Automatic annotation (TrEMBL):
It comes from the Eukaryota. InterPro entries: NAD(P)-bd_dom_sf, SDR_fam, TIC32. This is Short-chain dehydrogenase TIC 32, chloroplastic. Pfam families: adh_short (PF00106).
Amino acid sequence: MIQTVGSSQLWHYRECLARKHRTDPISTLHELHYRASQAKATTNSIASFLLLLHRISLILSLISLFCCLAEREAMGYWREATDIKGPSGFGSGNTAEQVTEGIDASRLTVIVTGGSSGIGAETARVLALRGAHVIIGARNLEATNAVKQNILNSIPSARIDIIQIELRLLSSLKSVRAFTEKFLAMNLPLNILINNAGVMYCPFKLSKDGVEMQFATNHLSHFLLTNLLLEKLKTTVEKTGIESRIVNLSSVAHVGPYSEGIKFDKLNDKKA
């Protein structure tokens, strides 16, 4: 095993060896040279190690940069690929205001579930901008009232009502019926139903009706809500002559489903 020494130790050895030099100068010089070589080797090893760390850091930085550039390129390609214009001339790159420009929605009554934030809030705002009577169904009354106030600040003539509905309870079919009863009690027409509310990536849990939470909230609850309001949609068409619409929001996740499809027999299986 080779013992290494630092420069401060080397000076200490020199002082000790100076005494020995008077009696045995040749061996003293050899030992001094050996110690100096050891110190130099240690310094070179440290320098090499630091250089290696620097190179590793540089490589990692370059990898990170390339990943960022690749991600930006992929997102740009994705936006270009998905922004396909439909028969209307609009695509995913257009805004709600662009799509509804010039439309008079003053004769329409619209329900928007999950209108306290995000797409739901923007949908409610633009519909109100075009004159529609908007009914927002949302869990968080504080956030929804803030959305309503923001809309009224920019559109003083906006017609907006709020019916509270607990998003987590939306997975309960009982709460869907309660929401429907509150709306029907308002004795309003219904031209458009926008099923926007939903949950995503929630921990595995069963609803009060014993169904996996995400499937119950995003699918079953809106299926029931649509059926409970279907008669109102039909009668509104008969009375106003305006064709009704039902809009179900989804996501781009539909482009990459499991090849075997939904395993309905294992829907409530946590391990499935």
